[in-house]
Amino acid sequence: MSEYGRNENKLIRHIAGQDIEFDDEGFFMDDSQWSEDACRELCVREGLTEIEDEHWRVLYAYRDFYAYNGRAPLNKDLKKSTGMSIMEMEKLFPGGLKHGARRLCGLPNPKTCQ
What we know:
The chain has helices spanning 36-45, 53-69, 75-82, 86-92, 96-104; strands spanning 2-7, 10-15, 18-23. By secondary structure, it is α+β, with helices and mostly antiparallel strands.
């Protein structure tokens, strides 16, 4: 993964064979640029070297809810769709849910996501 461009509030990184735009806080600018391969590379960068089924369950819960509802899920929605407690999910990701899972699953910044 290499960083090679910056425009005002966005950063372009080459990840998993494609150029992906991120905002200045590390969130995807366009969720359609997300892929499992890009996610794996980002996980390694964040110190998460092994991605288990539980990780994917949380990441896809975010993505599926966002795709269907046009907004990120609330904690109660995540609990319902994953069958896991918030504490269990927080412990899975460096940075917890907001600064870990939310960035890794490709959703936009919570500040810009309605």
